[in-house]
Amino acid sequence: MGRTNSTYRNHLDTFFERFKTYRKGLRQESQQAYDRLKEKAHGHAHAASYLNSGRPQLPAFLSMLVGLQKETQRNSDEVERLEVEVEELKTQLEILETKAFEESSGVQG
């Protein structure tokens, strides 16, 4: 016996199927971005299925937003980490430049 109610993932696939021609009209780079958004919606399908809705639009968009927020936060954290690393490297460079200057000018410390 099969299920009579479609799963959220089935509704989601149907939802994205309607945008197939839209995707085809996008440039390749935009198609890749579209596909990543679609993956984000599918990646949160387990949570969206709790809404038990036959209309996947809102849960799909919310799932995409959650995925984008996670990605944004990861990128922000990485930028922050790299900024700290750059500052540490600048400090090390200043120390090395000072030592090199002192050695070349005969200053002893």
Could you characterize what this model shows?
- The protein has five helices and no strands.
- The chain has helices at 8-17, 20-25, 28-43, 45-48, 57-105.
- The radius of gyration is 26 Å and the shape is elongated.
- The protein has one domain (8-105).
- It is mainly alpha-helical and 109 residues long.
- 78% of the residues lie in helices and 0% in strands.
Short description:
The protein has 109 residues and is an all-alpha fold. It has helices at 8-17, 20-25, 28-43, 45-48, 57-105.
Layout of secondary structure:
Blueprint: H1 8-17, H2 20-25, H3 28-43, H4 45-48, H5 57-105
Helix pairs in contact: 3-5
Keywords:
109 residues, mainly alpha, 5 helices, elongated
Specify the number of helices: 5
Profile the largest sheet: none
Give the helices and strands as they follow along the chain: HHHHH
Distance between the termini: 86 Å
Q: Outline, from the CA principal axes?
A: elongated
- Radius of gyration, in Å, reads 26 Å
Structural class: mainly alpha
Low-pLDDT parts are none
Give a count of the beta strands, DSSP E runs of length 2 or more.
0
What is the residue-averaged pLDDT?
91
Helix content: over 70%
Number of domains: 1
Q: Percent of residues in beta strands? A: under 5%
